């Protein structure tokens, strides 16, 4: 039922993500992907104007290396470890998406309606991608972490602030997914 | 050489998130509509494994690779920043379907359009840095 080249089951993925987090702790670091955005701002010289970016970003180089590895992993997985069977969605989901003119996966990870060549000619889609990114960047820094730092690391370490942040993630995600997406698309 | 282990961790992370489709916009939509257990299964398993591992490390007073005692810093106390920041992130996550890890992974996988999301995320991070002292925390 599961194949190495098809969708990996949730329990394998969850187990490996847990191990990745623990490995980073063993290496004397912590698992947190959004911190890299701050590091990059700092590396680009944002510290000259804004105090928040005034820190020795070179101490965070290890995390940029994780990012580089992640990009490489994304390339390896899609190029060499994929049979193209792709995302198997609930038929109900596909019907709902169709009502918003969002195409079914058919082996793709992302809809053409968002990242296809046609879509990228639309200023509206470009604005959606940029705005989505701004919300992710602003929100994660304001909350001090994202899925890796709060949902995985923070909840594993029984941190109340992380629980509050994760509740926020779902409030925002549910509002967007149920109320705003149908208005936007 | 000391960076090799971090590169490997990153590669495994990228492969796992791609192969389990946690980087997929579709999976995030499906999650927020409670139409599949997949994403919840991934997150809950990772937390379960992580929680057991962290407890074991604390109980055995484990040392890290350099021989230093392992200390996982507690998150600062607070409410407003976590709930408001979290909600803003959730709005973005529900819209473009990418949290910060998958952004890089998708660009690596050749989804260049996600580079725009990444650019936006850098802008958002910068804006937070500028406005930090004026925001409720």
Question: Would you kindly provide a written description of the structure presented here, covering whatever features stand out?
Answer:
The complex is a heterodimer of chains A (185) and B (137). Chain A is an all-alpha fold and 185 residues long. Chain A has a domain at 1-82. The longest helix of chain A is centred in the C-terminal third of the chain and has 25 residues, at 160-184. In chain A, helix 2 (35-43) packs across helix 3 and helix 7 packs antiparallel against helix 8. The model of chain A has no long low-confidence stretch (mean pLDDT 96). Chain A contains eight helices and no strands. Chain A starts with 9 loop residues before the first helix and ends with a helix. With 137 residues, chain B is mainly α. Chain B has one domain (2-36, 74-134). Helix content of chain B is 66%, strand content 0%. Chain B contains six helices and no strands. In chain B, helix 5 runs antiparallel to helix 6 (114-131). Chain B is globular and about 45 Å long. The chains are: A mainly alpha (185), B mainly alpha (137). Chains A and B meet through helix 1, helix 2, helix 3, helix 4 and helix 6 of A and helix 1, helix 2, helix 3, helix 4 and helix 5 of B.
State which percent range the strand residues of chain A make up: under 5%
Taken in chain order, the helices and strands of chain B follow as: HHHHHH
Q: Considering DSSP H and I runs of 4 or more, what fraction of the residues of chain B is helical?
A: 55-70%
Continuous helix count of chain B: 6
Please report the number of helical segments of chain A: 8
State the end-to-end distance of chain B. 40 Å
Main structural class of chain B? mainly alpha
Order of helices and strands of chain A: HHHHHHHH
Subcellular location (chain A): Cell inner membrane
Protein name (chain A): YeeE/YedE family protein
Membrane topology (chain A): Multi-pass membrane protein
InterPro entries (chain A): Sulf_transp_TsuA/YedE (IPR007272)
